[in-house]
Amino acid sequence: MVDYPEIMTMEQAAEFLQVSTRTIHRMVSQGKMPGRQVGSQWRFEREQLHQWIRGEWPQRGPEESTTQRELIEKEARRLGVDIPETLVDLQQAARERRSDWPE
Prior knowledge:
Layout: E1 7-9, H1 10-17, H2 21-29, E2 36-38, E3 41-45, H3 46-53, H4 68-79, H5 87-100
Antiparallel strand pairs: 1-3, 2-3
């Protein structure tokens, strides 16, 4: 029997659940299973995966999941700029707005 660490990588979580990493990535990205993105990598708590398998982990609804677009929209509102197509556009608009401020 493999002794899995308290915090697992995607590969360890996939092995633990006996599914592919692709399945894990799809499900966690959709908020259907517990996981946390750290930088560009995903990490999983062993106990949360146990709870999830037992049906004890509360699945987030669509209204609770935060997409990158929602984060950009929130930042745009905070900065008082129009919704950009990309984060680069958002940063540029914020710089332009700051340069227009009176000193």
